[in-house]
Amino acid sequence: MGQRFNTRTVHFQSKDVARNMSKAQPIYQTSAFTFKDLDDMESFYQGDKEYLYSRFGNPNTDDLGKGVAAIEEAEDGVATSSGMSAILAGVLAVVKPGEHIVASEDLYGGTYQLLAVELLNLGIEVSFVSFEQIEEIKEAIQPNTKLIYTESVTNPLLRVENLEMVKALADEFQLITMIDNTFATPYLLQPTKFGADLVIHSATKYIGGHSDVTAGVLVGKKEYIEKARGKVVSLGCNLSPFEAWLTCRGLKTLSIRMERQSRNALALANALKTNERVLKVYYPSELSSKGNGAMVSIELNSSVNVEEFFKSLRWIKIAPTLAGVETTVSYPIRTSHRTIPNSTREKLGITNGLVRISVGIEDELDIIETFEKAIEVAAK
Ligand SMILES: *Cc1c(COP(=O)(O)O)cnc(C)c1O
Fold first, then answer.
1. Are residues 227 and 287 in the same domain?
2. How confident is the model over 250-302, as pLDDT tens digits?
3. Looking at the structure, do residues 247 and 196 belong to the same domain, yes or no?
4. Higher per-residue confidence, 341 vs 45
5. In this structure, are 144 and 121 located in the same domain?
6. Atom of ligand 1 nearest to the CA of 204
7. Which residue is closest in CA terms to ligand 1's atom 8?
8. In Å, what is the CA distance from 254 to each residue of 114, 160, 245, 247?
């Protein structure tokens, strides 16, 4: 009988822990594996042994890649050195020079840079369009379009992507779909259930959950993951065993962290909606029945001095990342969206008053009171 989500999330590590039966998974902190004799080594090439050299594969990195795949009910998965390299490996596994990608225009800044600059240099062209207009997407599709790329929840305005629409388009035009599921996490959303072919996570964020590793995971259809694994090996963007081990440790508490963090985020969003100095609160309402995620973005009105606001948050730190157990804030126009052209930024609604909040696991009232106080103190 198959396990349910929370059980899978704690018991995803399937490796035999060898003779000593250690309760926690050992760290295979090794660059390579040894062999008794030449026949034994040959058995790796025959597929009877799993490990030869850690860049090709390692029990800890496999735990993470295959673990997230099992949790998401995807066919296969591979861990990578970062979210960025998971995107790169996934894209290069399915798109060749001369082919074309249609991507949403409101992507994570680093992804925009990778697709718009680096891929173009490799001869892969990308059209960025608003995914709110299906006609715009259709118009951007060319005969050489291979991939449709978007994020299940966008950053920083937290728009929830219509994955059914994306899948329908992919079917109509025979395209491969790749979804960045970092903000939603497998706990709240499993894009493979909507027919996504490839799903990437910056495991640096919620999967790791403790702001102590940079890591990525790519899951999806077996044939694509096998190709992506080849890219990870040849590009050398494998994850280190220790980082993989830490990320696996974080993953085990994904469910309870997301449960608490989503609840706190909802409470904060509701409290700030009634604050007269907050012009807008961005918080999804239709992401999942388990909650709507732990990110809240707010637009402060012009009566609030943004510099003062950031200075007045006391224990809530400014951090150009998200998803840790601690509540943090970031300022998109000076961090994640620095490289996005001004005109695109304005079109997207990423204004000077926009603050992105990553809600942690603290007491809900401490979080709410600290934001309310900082807004009050920073009011001109
Ligand atoms: C952080 C992030 C990435 C990049 O991940 P790294 O682990 O920093 O390489 C990609 N997509 C989204 C949505 C992110 O938040």
1. no
2. 999 999 999 999 999 999 999 999 999 999 999 999 999 999 999 999 999 99
3. yes
4. 45
5. yes
6. 7
7. 83
8. 28, 20, 15, 11
